Amino acid sequence: MRELRRICVYCGASDDVHERWLEAAREVGRLLAAEGIELVYGGGNVGLMGAMADACLDAGGRVLGVIPERLQALEVAHEGLTELFVVDSMHARKMLMAQLSDAFVALPGGFGTLEELFEALTWTQLGFHDKPVGVLDAHGYFAPLLDFVAQSVELGFVRPQHAALLCSAPTPTELLATLRDAHLPARPRWVLKP
Prior knowledge:
The chain is of the alpha/beta class. It has helices spanning 19-35, 47-58, 69-73, 90-100, 111-126, 143-154, 160-163, 172-180, and strands spanning 6-10, 38-41, 63-68, 83-87, 103-106, 133-136, 166-169. A seven-stranded parallel sheet has the order 4-3-2-1-5-6-7, sandwiched between helices. Strand 5, helix 5 and strand 6 (133-136) form a beta-alpha-beta unit. Helix 1 packs parallel to helix 2 (47-58).
């Protein structure tokens, strides 16, 4: 079973979403705190990001945020985190989040969430790191995406062994168990170092 000390979570920053998505994010935050796993995320105080961070902190967890200067200047940075890293670009943000984390999870979100998810997954596929990647398919949010991945396999664009690198589960508890048991390529060719 894989040890997970820190998990990077990608998720939406919109407050204009149904309460069920915000509650799913809070459930993730509470679970990580209960399991003694530190949360690494984008450092925002809005949308699912803020709801998850607040829930983790309220439950006694540790939360590490990573935010570019430009977004901090727009006053979306969460000021009550265990630690907030301010970086100079989105590329630096994603690299630091990856270096700090033992696994990656995507919750419901938009283009940014999907971009970050697929970058982390691609890094696993190419052997840049050996960290599991998963999606919380809360209320079926990621079902169309998972169907698309299956279709990509059928059409020959994604190899079955690479599609299998993307874990999914409908609840945070099930997803955490899946990430801990994930079987990844034995030897990554390149590993991102902290």
